[in-house]
Write a structure and sequence with these properties.
The protein is an all-alpha fold. Helix 1 runs antiparallel to helix 8, helix 3 crosses helix 7 and helix 4 runs parallel beside helix 6. Helices cover 78% and strands 0% of the residues. The protein has one domain. The chain contains eleven helices and no strands.
Length: 281
């Protein structure tokens, strides 16, 4: 029988692919459209798709406690996603993505250490390699002055950390409903901000439809993360899933023609080496 660690790792890898692709599309859309419009469309499509899947699968609706935690996760992650898309669109996608990811991972890992105990030293070594891998993969070649969007990336990181911690409290309730509910309140909050902005002036809408695609990918990644968390340790799931900037930056290299340096190759090697260390006990 397959070890639960491998189940968690498989769900985490699926999360990486979904979140990395979603952030690339979201950041791309936010370059030409209002980031809150992109995020509102992402939350709307994510909720619609995941709620439909939950209904089709006859998944049991969560009890009051898990439901409230899922809504709280959406409150944390919803606005954080809009801030993150704005940070990605600022011109330093290669720096802001890993900064947000590392901060979002560090806080839940510290929480897991205090609640679930210190993991094996081999896994801790994997955590360190993963962090270095994310940073090396995403580190820009030249930055002059204060990087644009860095403050936004830090705010997004705190929001994503809150999302991880809240979604962890949903326990073993339905991952489909948990992912759907996490988008419900987030959509309302971001939409309220969007309406306020709309009343003050025109909201740029060019290529905002990419947010719909990003939303489906993002909510799918959330469902996979919930399953990864349910089948393994919180810190292991969070660190593995935090490798998603690798996908974001690889897509940026392919489609936006960003340079592929030796440092980035070393980062990819470190990230790949980190996975078996984290998964294996």
């Amino acid at each position: 029988m397959i070890s639960p660690n491998y189940h968690s790792a498989a769900f985490s890898l699926a999360t990486i692919l979904c979140w990395g692709s979603a952030d690339f599309l979201g950041g791309l859309a936010a370059k030409t459209a209002d980031s809150f419009l992109v995020t509102a469309l992402a939350h709307a499509s994510g909720f619609a798709v995941m709620a439909s899947l939950a209904l089709l699968a006859h998944a049991p609706f969560p009890a009051t406690g898990p439901m409230l935690w899922a809504l709280a996760a959406g409150a944390c992650g919803g606005v954080a996603l809009a801030i993150f898309y704005r940070a990605l669109a600022s011109g330093h996608m290669g720096l802001n993505a890993p900064v947000a990811a590392l901060l979002a991972a560090a806080i839940p890992v510290a929480f897991a250490f205090s609640v679930e105990g210190i993991p094996h030293l081999v896994q801790i070594a994997g955590f360190v390699l993963a962090g270095l891998g994310i940073w090396f993969i995403s580190k820009p070649d030249h930055i002059t002055g204060r990087p644009r969007g860095l403050g936004l990336a830090l705010l997004a990181g705190f929001g994503f950390a809150g999302f991880f911690l809240c979604i962890n409290q949903t326990g073993n309730s339905s991952a489909l409903w948990g992912a759907a509910l996490s988008r419900c309140l987030a959509f309302l909050m971001v939409s309220a901000i969007l309406v306020t902005k709309w009343s003050r002036g025109a909201v740029v809408k060019r290529f905002a439809w990419l947010g719909l695609v990003a939303g489906v990918l993002d909510v799918s990644g959330t469902a996979f993360f919930i399953r990864a968390d349910q089948t393994g340790r919180l810190d292991v799931s969070v660190v593995l899933c935090s490798l998603y900037p690798m996908i974001t930056v690889l897509l940026a290299m392919c489609f936006l023609k960003e340079r592929f340096t030796r440092l980035k190759l070393a980062g990819i090697a470190a990230a790949l080496a980190a996975v078996p260390l984290i998964v294996l006990r």
